[in-house]
Design brief:
Layout: E1 6-10, H1 14-30, E2 37-43, H2 45-55, H3 64-78, H4 83-93, H5 101-113, E3 127-134, E4 140-143, E5 147-150, E6 154-157, H6 163-170, E7 180-183, E8 189-190, E9 206-211, H7 213-216, E10 224-225, E11 231-232, E12 238-243, H8 258-288, E13 291-295, H9 300-307, H10 311-319, H11 324-331, H12 342-365
Helix pairs in contact: 1-2, 1-3, 1-12, 2-6, 4-5, 5-6, 9-10, 9-12
Length: 367
Amino acid sequence: MKLNKIGLALSGGGIRALLFHLGVFEWLAEYHLFEQIKRVSTVSGASLCVGMIYSHSNLHWPTSEEFLFQTLPSIKESLKNDLQVSAILDLMISPKYWNKKVNIIARTLERKWGVYGKLDQLSGDVTWYINCTSFETGKRFRFSRENMGDYIIGYAEKPNLPISEVMAASAGFPIFIGPYTIDVKNFTWVASKYSDGEQFYSGFKTLHLWDGGVYDNLGLESVYKPDKGGELREGVEFLIVSNASAPIGLQPKAKLLLHKNIKRVLDISMEQVAAVRTRGVMDFIRRSGQGMYFKIGNSADDITNKSKCSVELMKHLTEHSLPREQATHAMRYRTTLRKPSETDFQILLRHGYEVADCTYQCYKEGE
């Protein structure tokens, strides 16, 4: 298995996703694979994760060694600050931001987590795609240092937007946080190559962007084409999907709290979309051998049993990995921006690393 020209699709899931993906990045760095990453596509909590990586690496994509010995320790220190509590306190002090909670989160990212810079200042060979959902078109609206937009609206080149705002937009879950707004007239737009020659649709004065997970919580489309049986995007030869989504579980209908029922319907819809996307990409990985799928909650027992690896490898991996109970605990960790306890922090980080390593060791043995 050659892990060359890697494309990463990283799911949402708040702090749970941020820490799980950090564990996956730690594994990639230990195998000296940071230098093979070419595209990174993120949603929500994953966008917070990758934004932190850039901000704690001088806005440059780090090498494997830089990530392990500089970036990761710096991120760990910043995450000791509680983003959610700080944002709520800011909102109480500045109630004028009540309808602009995304801006509060962006400001808190800067003050508490050390996020800084603008999209067009990012450097390195990696292209980072930050995914949102457009209310106006119902499509995936993506940001990168090259451009922003969707295939209906069109694209604006070199968006001079703060990284903190784009991260917050990607994590702006409907109902609780609200949309990130873009004033259309502030940018020059060109038609998408997929728009059949039509010009930019100019009927909207403002665009409203929400959490990218509403459209696709895996963030696949920037690294993988799901149609026609699946195909990797240009420049990508190996796909890694890291899914830190939590199951929605059982929940009774609320009698008085309408927002809970609305959120439940949204969660159901998102889970069904994710299930369809997962089946498609898993089928592609099995047929092509050009990818791996990491799922939060999978213990070493689960991974080794499904892969039918040797007894020796199974014993080694299960003896040196978290037990199933702690893997399940990581999966069920709430979707929030609250600071986790030190124990939960370590479990989530280690779990991400171990899911990646166990999956890789089993795939490698089966070659």
